[in-house]
Amino acid sequence: MQDFGLYFELGWQHICNLQGYDHIMFVAVLCGTYLLKDWRKVLILVTAFTIGHSITLALSVLSIIRINSSIIEFLIPVTIVITSLLNVFKKQKSNTTMKITYGLALFFGLIHGLGFSNYLKSLLGTSTNITAQLFAFNVGLEFGQVIIVLATLFISYLCINLVKMNRRDWIVFLSSAIFGIALTMCIDRFPLIKFR
Fold first, then answer.
1. Which domain holds residue 86?
2. What does the angle CA 111 – CA 113 – CA 115 come to, to the nearest 5 degrees?
3. Which residue in 8, 36, 158, 190 is deepest, having the highest Cβ count within 10 Å?
4. Pick the residue with more confidence: 145 or 119?
5. Gap between the Cα atoms of 84 and 128, Å rounded
6. What DSSP character marks residue 37?
7. CA distances for 8 relative to 62, 128, 165, angstroms
8. SS3 (DSSP) at 60
9. Which pLDDT score, from 0 to 100, does residue 196 have?
10. Is the pLDDT of residue 150 over 80?
11. Concatenated DSSP letters of the chain
12. Residue 91 domain-assigned?
């Protein structure tokens, strides 16, 4: 039980760490087009992302799959760039666009899970019985993710309802700002890719 608390805390602190803000930006841009009243859609979206990153987090930590970490570190901001662009150019949320959004959240979750796994593997070292730690870390990630989602929805509420920003203007502003930061990260990380 002590291990659960430790790995739970490490999980939520990892995703909420302002020094590793790429995951924060992804969750923010993923949910930034929604309002508090859209909580069901946000729940489905976050669940899709969770399923994706839970799968690859487990597979990678258990050494079932191995991918060069520099490729993953490059692909994470790529997922942010793509999500930002989709937000800017998406006109309306039809059933088709919602299904595409959920599918992308699941797929991008697979990529982010590999990023989380590098951190968790460094914590676990040579430990062989890692199921409980893996579970606790993943639950901690989800807790941190909920904090980011709630913060994003709250900021959206303030900007749209109190500052009286047009909803479309808010989406373009948020997505464009995150796009700029993520594109810089892509450029910075691109030369680090080394194929083995």
1. 2-12+22-192
2. 80
3. 8
4. 145
5. 39
6. G
7. 18, 19, 37
8. helix
9. 44
10. yes
11. -HHHHHHHHHHHHHHH-GGGTHHHHHHHHHHTT--GGGHHHHHHHHHHHHHHHHHHHHHHHTTS----HHHHHHHHHHHHHHHHHHHHH-----HHHHHHHHHHHHHHHHHHHHHHHHHHHHHHTT-S--HHHHHHHHHHHHHHHHHHHHHHHHHHHIIIIIS---HHHHHHHHHHHHHHHHHHHHHHHGGG----
12. yes
What is the distance between the alpha carbons of residues 108 and 49, in angstroms, rounded to a whole number? 7
Intra-chain end-to-end CA distance of the chain, in Å: 40
Mean pLDDT of 8-30: 91
- Is residue 1 predicted with pLDDT exceeding 70? no
Question: What is the pTM for the complete model shown?
Answer: 0.89
- Is the pLDDT at 195 greater than 60? The verdict is no
Is pLDDT above 80 for 38? yes
How confident is the model at residue 42, as a pLDDT?
93
Please state, in angstroms and rounded to a whole number, the distance separating the CA atoms of residues 14 and 138.
Answer: 11
- Total domain count for the chain? 1
Q: Kindly state whether residue 151 falls inside one of the protein's structural domains.
A: yes
Structure tokens at 196: 């083995």
Q: Is residue 101 part of a domain?
A: yes
Structure tokens at 16: 């909420």
Please, what is the average pLDDT of the chain?
89
With beta carbons less than 8 A apart as the criterion, state whether 22 and 148 touch.
no
Longest dimension (CA), the chain: 54
Phi, psi angles (nearest 5°) of residue 63:
60, 30
Residue 69 placed within a domain = yes
